[in-house]
Amino acid sequence: MPADPRYAVHAYAWTSSWSNDRLDILDHAKSFGLDAVEIPLMEIDRVDPAAIRERAEAAGIGLCTSVAMPMDADPTGDEEASRAAAVAFLRRCSELTAAMGAGLLGGVTYAAHGRMLDERPTRVHMERSAEVLRQAARDAAALGVTIAIEPCNRYEVFLVNTAAQAVELADLIGEDNVGIHLDTYHMNIEEEDFETPVHVAGERLVHFHLSESHRGVPGRGVVDWAAVMRGLNAIDYRGLVGLEAFEDMSPAMRAATRSWRDLAPSSDELVREGLAYLRGVQRATAVAA
Fold first, then answer.
1. What architecture is the 7-288 domain classified under in CATH?
2. Which residues share a beta bridge with 65?
3. Would you say 152 and 181 are in contact if contact means Cβ atoms under 8 Å apart?
4. In the chain, at which residue ranges do the beta strands (DSSP E only) sit?
């Protein structure tokens, strides 16, 4: 991993709902020394890729996107119509990503976010997801977009909870532009440690969310950040590392943002303090290596 990695921030750090009214976030993020902003595609009809691209280029900041699949476009759905809707939805997400000048679409791309089962998922669910994502990846490849699989905790997603399961799904999909997107918030719940999953993902790792155990300020929770950075250093990770925190409970991400208390004095303080802390840990682990 470079001594000075490229840091991103999720736009929801400063807003609970993305629209052209919040294009100022791109300039604001740049003022913190950040390299990229992650644009949410959950409220897809409010995403204006031309306006985003123009403002990002003016600000001199990069972009990536993420999504959480809706219930009516579920890659694992029992009905073929739901799976077809998922292919179409992911195609639109890739088109928006490419149109704004970004090359990475991450998040919960493989199952409806918030869908729960009453029993353990079967191989059928994994195969359905792989079939949808195989077509979605081929559509994305034509646009120069990589699709990432983000393992998510059991309370939000039933299918892929760990890095090993993400690798299993990526193998089943079998497309070169499918990567893995890890997130320390979910790792804290589902993994046995913070370094091993980075090695499990290995060269497939294309995005990494730096989220504290309570989604607040990095360094104020229980995530083992030194282990995270050791893992990223060991695989010489060159992708974005992104702060993910939420300014308020987002209606579009209700399953992920059920926080009924303030997690930081302000969004600015969360980003400023968290970024300084993470950069300090990264420098320390790079020297130690």
1. Alpha-Beta Barrel (3.20)
2. 39, 105
3. no
4. 7-10, 36-40, 62-69, 104-112, 146-149, 178-183, 205-210, 240-243
Residue 205: φ, ψ to 5°: -70, 120
Mean pLDDT of 52-61: 98
The model's pLDDT over 81-126, given as tens digits with 9 standing for 90+, comes to: 999 999 999 999 999 999 999 999 999 999 999 999 999 999 999 9
Q: What is the pLDDT of residue 68?
A: 96
3-state secondary structure string, 68-117? Answer: EECCCCCCCCCCHHHHHHHHHHHHHHHHHHHHCCCCEEEEEEEEECCCCC
Residue 26: HSE in the Cβ half-sphere, 13 Å Cα cutoff: 23
3-state secondary structure labels for all residues of 159-170 = CCCCHHHHHHHH
* Tokens standing for residue 241: 């590392």
Q: What residues does 38 pair with on adjacent strands?
A: 10, 64
Return the pLDDT at 286.
85
As a whole number of angstroms, the distance between CA 237 and CA 244 comes to: 18
**What single DSSP character describes residue 154?**
T
Residue-averaged pLDDT of the chain: 94
More confident site: 261 or 236: 236
Residue identified by tokens 């930081």 is 264
* Rounded-to-integer distance, Cα 110 and Cα 124, Å: 13
Name the maximum alpha-carbon separation found in the chain.
Answer: 53
pTM of the model as a whole: 0.95
**137-165: burial string, b at 16+ Cβ within 10 Å, e else:** bebbbebebbbbbbbbbeebbbbbbbbeb
Domain definitions of the chain by residue range: 7-288
In this prediction, residue 27 carries a pLDDT of 98
Q: How far apart are CA 249 and CA 94, in angstroms?
A: 26
